[in-house]
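Input record (one chain):
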Amino acid sequence: MELLFVVLIAAAIALGARYVLPGRDTYGTVLVPAISGAVAAIVWVALTWAGWKFDGGWIWVVSLAVAGIVSIVLALVVPRRRKEHDDELLQKLSRA
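The corresponding structure, as predicted from the sequence alone:
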């Protein structure tokens, strides 16, 4: 049950990051929250396999912090890469 909560909280954090950071018009609405939720789930499961207790506070902090960092990085990198790729494609199509 806690895994579901951590995924939902991570997705909500990422959804907030999507609307705070610039460039949101270059990717879909659920891209960043979906990846953030997946990262939170992976980190949570890895930490429980490592022996961390699910009712401890640090597992929550680490899982949500890693998911938050990934969502911020993703929301900053995707628009830049998209613009670079679009410019390259425009140049390629303009030559033809």
